[in-house]
Design brief:
This protein has 269 residues and is mainly alpha-helical. It folds into 2 domains: 159 residues, Endonuclease Iii, domain 2 (Orthogonal Bundle), CATH 1.10.1670; 92 residues, no CATH class. Helix 6 packs across helix 8. The chain is globular and about 75 Å long. The protein starts with 6 loop residues before the first helix and ends with a helix.
Length: 269
Amino acid sequence: MASFPTVQDLAAAEWDTVAEHWAGLGYYARARNLHKGAKQLVEVIDKTGEFPQTLAGWEAISGVGPSTAGAIMAMGLHHYGVICDGNVKRVLTRWAAIDGDITKSATTKDLWALAERLTPTENSGLFAQAMMDMGATLCTRSKPACLLCPLKEDCLAHAQGRETDYPVKAKKQPKPSKFSDALLIESADGDILWLQRPDNGIWGGLWSLPLQFVEKVDGKANNKATVKKTLASDDKPSNMPNDVRSNEKVYEAEFTTAEQIINEWLIKK
């Protein structure tokens, strides 16, 4: 807040400055959206003299989804606004015993429709805050405090004794584990090569040592032994770079041009 006291200050800042302030917080896509969204908001303010005043106006800002936009409308601008974040979905699925998988669009649509029916036109911000707080403090993911819940009398999940069966959510497919070697490339003068990552992929927009892609492993891998075993099965030395030119399966779109050149050089050597 000291460095960027206004949205105009944030919008005018260079990305490297924003990234430096965000360093260590993780979820760097949020920082990129925050920076991009600030620029978009300044354009709106310059044109209209105020922040967006409609739901569609806020949803047009990078990083602002329907629930965040509804929260801004309801609690920030004190207009009518509906939220349906994770806490609210948990409360609603239990209260109405909704068996649909909340990761499916059909269930999401039903939950939003229910949230809209329940949200009062007056003081929707107070209702939104109460729903979020109830989900965060009473109707928690595990060990919900049903005896203290103001909705326990007509909560269908509570009546069935199945509170923790909701919300229904299919298990996510495990994300692949990707392994790379960080390369320390130093000039004769002692300068070390750092590259700015592409906007897509890991550490988007940040600076890092060049990465030499090693292997992608399906599912979670606890250590690099898995990778070495995979490479050994192909009778390749564990330190040999993969030829990303001829193997689309292991080619990483996150490679910078410089990393591709370095990788080509390592293969030839």
